[in-house]
């Protein structure tokens, strides 16, 4: 290891370190502008010049490696003068018109200008570019402040894997441009804001924050959108979020995040829904309830909402629950839905409410509609239904990735950028299987464009080839798996010729893919809803587990089974037992856990367990609400009237139901059917935890108060009696009221409902959930990286599962055969519809449609059609068209594109009303997981 002397101090350095890294590592400050530790070294700004004994002239510290015995001076008088000179040169072209200077204390550039007392020219230069020169809603462009450090160019290429920014012209005319001088969005900018985050001068800035002033506080929390779980900083001024920022690891210190400086457009610019004018600011009940009229006969203004205070709303709901419980003790007349948008603590309370207070297992959430097949399939194959590896180890150490049914760069964008970097920087072999030419196929070694609903045939076909060529991992199979021979025999008929006929993938490509995935080990398999939302969802997952066992890809970094969970806390909601068949920590309700939880919650075990699973699932609850089996639904943050399949039917059920309590932050589509609306808090308004897709539990912190009415309705009312509330607090108070009315007083450390804060609920979760036993608010608040299982308070967490064995002992191969989808195209409905998500929106769109910039860029449903199908029907690009199925119709704007193959149509599910694709989708369910087949149904197209 080279030893050097810096400013007369002996410093041990690492081989290959630059002077800059060595000096900073030893605590010396060297100024930089073009340098950033996340980016390649440009060595162009010359601000990091230092003196090195024996070198004539100054040396750039960022690009000069240390060598043994080097003697370095970082702040000699000559160096300081040189730096001042560099800064004064840059000031010759730097023009700040002051448009954004009130929004930050300073910039990196101006801090060094001040530090070295550099002076600009006596006559300030005139602006040489237009200010705010790009029309996009997110990135403020003012090239008058550009100092040509090229950090934006390198961030776009190296962090984001995009190539939007570039350098144009030469000499004094050199400038930074987007694309070939095109608007940013036309240059395929993904609006991630990385260029802004890395810009040291404010030449690129956050447009949504211009003119809003400086923050009065900055709160570190976790993104509320997708399951990647990025860390971010909410910049707050006067109780409003005015900007989202990120910090490099050096700035974060001990706090760990999955994303470094990266965010996607939703995380960085989708925060303004928090302050949207449509937020619910207090509880509401229908007028007919206050008038004592029956719902069925209520019309006109009797159905209007009336704002009431919390005691009135919660007492009304509690009394109704007590009445229903008394009239129908069994089978239970209640359904309870948790929410993948809400915290672990809130979801824990929802299932405790269902089981302890209402005494039923009718509790579920939207995982039913996205990854219930993953949970069931992986439990059968290996014993647990979670992602086995971490995003970081997959991105850094996998030699190959099989990405199937996951539009990762749009749905899990920051993980998508990690995969793009892995391809660009270290040659990751990426095999993408997807019916659409999704964006990441541009980075793939191979794209297998199979027909929707043929995943099993595709995977079986590759495994057939692997076995024929003896590319399988015989030793791993012998040591760690069972039922191999039956499985191997079942693959005999999946010849490349047959599989090619089923899937539409050329036989040569099947062989190529099988070879790549077998040779480049470790290989990680990644999937999302393209695999799970089928009537064969569980079988699809089993076939992917078969593939990874066949190749021995478990237990090491860069391997494993890696389902990407969709919403921010869908993993956590599952972990918390918001499922009809398990208590928190996946403890079966039919096993010993029933007695444990009865004891913890001081209640009798729930009986009788006649249903399989022992409670109703989401879709069954909606059905049961319509036919009277259920009399009350208590729904937290789920928009059933938008996200259920076959919506005409689902909405009909909701309309017929007796009493619906909806706890939400907006009057969603489901609010139309609600009797009581309880105003919850958004992610920025409460404390708690989310668990991301890689089982990592992360802190959520309150940055702003929940919204309230401008003033109490009457003088008697205090602000506390009105206003939105943290959801855990609403559920806890409702539980106290129901138990009180029933005269029940459950006693014990985990039995009551008097929580002072979310940290107390987390402590209760840890007490009853073995995999969360070592998770505490104190550890999370310190920024510890905790991936469950965390069995005790000093356990460091478990980044990789299945290292030595599987939770079920041996991994089990399953015989899985191709089955057709429930409804395939025919003469009447000749096209196949598949649905999915887009970068600028998120799930039902309740939040992103209320984020101004996101909605501006993507304001409506777009329908992708192959020109071969569109042209004979007379459709032009951009024309309004209608998709019709046997169940209903929806409208959207046609996009003629070869992203979809001929015969396939794609639409997203983010928009309500006539644009909602779920009027068309089918409610055919996987028989085990009860997940609907959102990915395949038969449709025809008409002029809109
Ligand atoms: Fe948020 Fe996901 Fe985007 Fe990260 S990738 S900023 S978690 S939406």
Summary, kept brief:
By secondary structure, the chain is α/β, with parallel strands linked by helices. The protein is 29% helix and 16% strand. It is built from 31 helices and 37 strands.
Keywords:
944 residues; alpha/beta; 7-stranded mixed sheet; 6-stranded mixed barrel; 31 helices; 16% strand; globular; binds iron/sulfur cluster
Write the layout of secondary structure elements.
Blueprint: E1 3-6, E2 9-12, H1 19-25, E3 49-52, E4 59-60, E5 71-73, H2 77-91, H3 108-115, E6 139-141, H4 151-159, E7 165-168, E8 175-178, H5 194-198, E9 204-206, E10 217-222, E11 231-237, E12 240-245, H6 249-252, H7 265-269, E13 284-286, H8 287-290, E14 305-307, H9 310-327, E15 334-337, H10 344-357, E16 363-364, H11 372-381, H12 391-397, E17 400-404, H13 408-411, H14 413-426, E18 429-433, E19 446-448, H15 455-468, H16 474-480, E20 481-482, H17 484-490, H18 496-503, H19 507-519, E21 523-527, H20 529-532, H21 537-550, E22 561-563, H22 570-575, E23 582-583, E24 587-588, H23 593-600, H24 618-627, E25 632-636, H25 640-643, H26 647-656, E26 659-664, E27 676-679, E28 688-691, E29 696-700, H27 727-741, H28 758-768, H29 777-781, E30 786-787, E31 811-812, E32 831-836, H30 852-857, E33 862-865, H31 867-873, E34 880-884, E35 889-896, E36 904-908, E37 937-943
Parallel strand pairs: 1-5, 15-16, 15-25, 17-18, 17-21, 18-19, 20-31, 21-22, 25-26, 26-27, 32-36, 33-35
Antiparallel strand pairs: 1-2, 3-4, 3-5, 6-9, 7-8, 10-11, 11-12, 13-14, 13-27, 23-24, 28-29, 29-30, 32-37, 33-36, 34-35, 34-37
The site of iron/sulfur cluster has 14 residues, from helix 7 and helix 14.
